[in-house]
C-alpha cells in the first residue's frame, strides 16, 4: 500500500463519519434553508404588481399600461370601498388622488408620474446594496467554514489521541499520511458543503428572478475566490490539526485554539469594518489571513489591476506551504505525547518522526 | 511469509535516562514469546521500537535476516498498552478501516472480520458502536483490531490485563491459532502465572537490559535450584538429620528440601527407601516468579 492509498483511506473515513453525524447534517440543512430563503422568499413576498381600483377612463388605461392589476369601478365611492375592504392595494380617484390604507404603492405613484428620461452610462456598475453585501458574503463564508471545519479537524485529531487509537494508526501508516488525510477529508467536506449551498443559492436566484447581471458580475469574483479559499483553508487546517495534537482532551481544544480563533476573527472583522477604506482593503488583500476574503471583494468592486490577484495568490501559496510545514512539525511532535497538554516548544523540538522517517 | 524477528543491540535514551541498554533477543516463528519485567523496565519502549512508533538510538531489527522496512511493519499486528479504538464507530467499521490501512482489500477484510469476531465471541456485537460494548468485549474488539489483517508478526502489550478468566482462555486460544499459522507472537504481561502457562520462549528485561532470554523450559532448567520434593508413607522428619540436606518445608509425609553443593539426591532417595515406601521423589522446577526474582536481583 502506498502513502497515497493511506491518505485516501483516512480522508474517506473522515468524510464517512461526518456524513453520519446528525449535527453536521442538520447544520448543512439549515444553511441550505437560509440560502433558499435569502434568494427565493423576497421574490415570493415582494413580488407581484399592486392591484388598483379606478373609474374607467384614461387614468385606468395608463395604470393598465404600467402593468398594474386594474379593477374598473362605477365611481370613486366604490373604489374607496374596495380599498377599505382590502380587496385592492390602492385606488385612483378624481384629482387624480391615490387612496391607500397606510402606504401608497410606489408602482401606482410611478405610473401616474412624469419621469425624466434616464441614461445609464455604466449599466453594469454594481448595485450599492450588492457592493455592500458581497464582501460580507466572502468574509462570512471563509470565516465560518474555516472555523467550523478547522475545529472539526482539531476535534478529530484530539479524539484519536484521547482514545489512544493513534498509536495503532501511527504503527500502521506514516504520520504525514494521517495528517494529510485529515486535512483533505475536512477540505472535501467544506468545499462540498459550500458547493451545495452555492448550487441551491444559484437555482434559488434564478427562480426568484434576481437581476441577470448579478450572476455574471459575481462570476469572476467567485472564480478567484475558489483558489484563495482552497489555499487559505488548507493553511488553516494544518494548523488546526496541530492544535488538536497538542491537547489530550476535547475540553482543552477551546483554550488551545484561542490564537487560531483570533487569527481568523481579526481579518474577518477587519475586512467588514474597513471595506470602504481602499487603502486598508488593498493591504488586507495581500495579507495571507485576510486575502482570501479581501481580494475577491476588491475584484467584485472592480478596483484591481490584472496582476494583483495573481501576486496575492502567490503570497498566500507561499504562506500556506510554510504553515503546512509548521503544522505538520507540531503535529508530529505532539501526536504521541499523551501526558497532558504538550508545550509548543516541546512539540517543535521533538524530532522523533524525522528520525523514524530518516 | 512469517520470519524470525531479531532485535540486535537496541539502545534508546529519553533525555538523561537510558531506557534500553543493548537489548538483544529473538521472536521465533510459531512461538509465543513472553516478555516480562517490572514497570518501567523497557517493555513498552522495546515494543514501540519494533512497531516503528519510536526510533532506536542505535541497534538493528531484522526480519528474516534483512533490516525491517516500513512495508513489512505494515503487515504486523499491534495491541498497544494504552487501549483505544473509535468509540462512535461500529466494531465492523473500525476493523474494516484498520484492515484497509494495513493494506487489505475490502473483500478480504469483510471475510476476516466475521470469522475473527465469532472466534472472539463478539460476532453478534459487530454492528454496535464500540462504546455500547462492555469493557471486556471492547478488549476483545481491541484484540480483533490487532488480528484483522492476518498479521505476519503479533506484538501485544499486556493483552490479558482487564480480562476475566474466560476471556483470557478465549484470547489464548486465538493466539495459539496464530502461532499454529507460524506467526511469531511477542506479548508482555504482569501476570506471571499466565505467562508461565502460555509461553514457549521467555524474555526477561530489567532496567532496560535483557536479563535472560531463551526457551522457557531451558531457562527453568538453568535457574533450577538443587531443590526436591519427596513424599513417603510415614513422617519425613528424619530428613532434618540427613547430611547435606536443608529442609525448606515439612508437612508430615511430604517435604521440600535443598541439597548442599556436592550433595547427592540418590543417596537421599536410598535413605528414604531404607525407611519404607517412597511415593514421590522429584526435582522442583522453579516458578517463573522465582526465576524473575532471581534474575532481577
Counting copies of identical and different chains, the oligomeric state is heterodimer
Rg of chain A: 28 Å
Number of domains of chain B: 2
What is the CATH topology of the largest domain in chain B? Rossmann fold
Element pattern of chain B in H and E: EEEHEEHEHHHEHEHEEHEEEHEH
The major sheet of chain B is characterized as: 6 strands, mixed
Q: Write down the Rg of chain B.
A: 24 Å
Integer count of domains of chain A? 2
Strand order across the largest sheet of chain A: 2-1-3-4
Q: Give the chain pair forming the largest contact, with residue counts.
A: A-B, 27 and 28 residues
- Note the gap between the termini of chain A: 19 Å
Which sequence of SSEs, written as H and E, runs from N to C of chain A? Answer: HHEHEHEEHHHHHHHHHHHH
Helix content of chain A: over 70%
- General shape of chain B: elongated
What is the residue-averaged pLDDT of chain B?
90
| Name of the top-level CATH class of the largest domain in chain B | Alpha Beta
CATH homology superfamily name of the largest domain in chain B: P-loop containing nucleotide triphosphate hydrolases
Describe the structure.
- The complex is a heterodimer of chains A (358) and B (297).
- By secondary structure, chain A is mainly α.
- Chain A is built from 16 helices and four strands.
- Chain A has a four-stranded mixed beta sheet with strand order 2-1-3-4, with helices on both faces.
- In chain A, helix 9 runs parallel beside helix 14.
- In chain A, strand 1, helix 3 and strand 2 form a beta-alpha-beta unit.
- Chain A folds into two domains: 62 residues, no CATH class; 231 residues, no CATH class.
- Chain A is elongated.
- With 297 residues, chain B is an alpha/beta fold.
- Chain B has two domains: 212 residues, Rossmann fold; 74 residues, 2-Layer Sandwich (Alpha-Beta Plaits), CATH 3.30.70.
- Chain B has ten helices and 14 strands.
- Chain B has a six-stranded mixed beta sheet, with helices on both faces. In chain B, strands 2-1-4-5 form a four-stranded antiparallel beta sheet, covered by helices on one side.
- In chain B, helix 3 crosses helix 4.
- The longest helix of chain B is centred in the middle third of the chain and has 16 residues.
- The chains are: A mainly alpha (358), B alpha/beta (297).
- The interface between A and B is medium-sized, with 27 and 28 residues.
